[in-house]
Write a structure and sequence with these properties.
It contains 5 helices and 2 strands, in the order H-E-H-H-H-H-E. The protein is mainly alpha-helical. The protein is elongated.
Length: 123
């Protein structure tokens, strides 16, 4: 019997992850409370040159935290990574003005600014 190879050639996949990561990655971030898991995840997801992705699954018991709600809403609104980082960088000003980050994300998405828009599938 002739067996034909049906493997997909991954060399055609264009991913630009940091050299520390493989082209395709699945991972867990595990640690005790307040050990920096969320900070590490946001750093990998939002800082240029770390992870290149177009779909994201996040599982956890604390997805009610503001960071995850902001991240989810920003991806739903298809905002670019840099726009999300700017939001976090301006957290003090946003809080001083008593603005909701979720409402602010919705407003950012309405503006036709190329720097804000990014195609991202939220799963």
């Amino acid at each position: 019997m002739d067996i034909k190879g049906l493997a997909w050639n991954e060399t055609l996949t264009k991913r630009f992850n940091n050299n520390l990561f493989p082209r395709s990655i699945r991972g867990l971030i595990v640690g005790k409370s307040a050990s920096g898991k969320t900070t590490l995840l946001l750093y990998f997801l939002l800082r240029p040159g770390w992870l290149d992705y177009n779909s994201l699954y996040v599982f956890g018991k604390s997805l009610f935290q503001p960071e995850y709600r902001i991240l989810k809403k920003a991806f739903e609104e298809q905002l670019h990574k840099e726009a999300i980082v700017r939001l976090f960088d301006n957290q003090a000003e946003i809080m001083n003005l008593n603005l909701s980050p979720i409402n602010l994300l919705e407003e950012m998405a309405k503006k036709p600014n190329k720097q804000n828009r990014y195609r991202m599938q939220v799963l």
